[in-house]
């Protein structure tokens, strides 16, 4: 689990002081783990106990364990400058993630929902959403694909608590999407977020999170490439988890 995912998981426990320390850590990922607790506190201009409390809120026994985690997270990857190897690394990381991720509650939501909506915040994300829609048809679950943000906005008043949303967003920070998602939360409409593996607003707003590891690769001409294969993998994993959920349910009858 990455630091960003830990922050999302324990977001409700964190205060402004914690976010101030985390901002320093995230901006100095390659060096901060060299600092002892006193030096870290000095660098962040906070007390030693504030640093310790943050580590414990994130699930570590103390600062030493947190420091080892930060060092482990900064380990360089082989083939870092090779785009094909980076893609394979992303896929491998996603395979490990979905194998360990418990999707039972998400499957229950999908199974019990009266209506299921799916929305992708960009062109590639909409392709992922359409593929998810296609897969669920075989299980007689008919996902309603929202075509664009205007359609989302128009439909907002009609969403009910027994609906379920699946929202696919690369960044989880799309500005025009956040107001609609806040409306969903205010109305008590549950949603599943599928976002890149980083701290983001969308993932913070729901307990039902799925992450797709897709690290951007910068080419020599400064063009940035982002893989979307991980999003398809995570989407299909959700579908397969649902299939298994229903098979187990039928077996128990």
Low-confidence stretches: none
Q: Which strand order do you get reading across the main beta sheet?
A: 2-1-3-4-5
> Total helix count?
12
Distance between the termini: 36 Å
Q: Whole-number average pLDDT?
A: 89
CATH architecture of the largest domain: 3-Layer(aba) Sandwich
Q: What does the overall shape look like?
A: globular
What is the number of beta strands? 7
CATH class wording of the largest domain: Alpha Beta
Q: Please outline the major beta sheet.
A: 5 strands, parallel
**Which percent range fits the helix content?**
40-55%
Output the structural class: alpha/beta
Determine the CATH superfamily of the largest domain: Glucose-6-phosphate isomerase like protein, domain 1
Q: Output the helix-strand order.
A: HHHHHHHEHEHEHEHEEEH
Rg over C-alpha atoms, rounded to the nearest angstrom: 20 Å
Number of domains: 2
CATH topology of the largest domain: Rossmann fold
Strand content: 5-15%
What does the model show?
This protein has 253 residues and is an alpha/beta fold. It folds into 2 domains: 3-73, Arc Repressor Mutant, subunit A, CATH 1.10.10.10; 83-252, Rossmann fold. It has helices at 3-9, 16-27, 37-44, 48-57, 63-73, 83-100, 104-112, 123-137, 149-155, 178-187, 201-204, 229-252; strands at 115-120, 143-146, 163-169, 191-196, 208-212, 217-218, 224-225. The strands form 2 sheets. Strands 2-1-3-4-5 form a 5-stranded parallel β-sheet. The chain is globular. The model has no long low-confidence stretch (mean pLDDT 89).
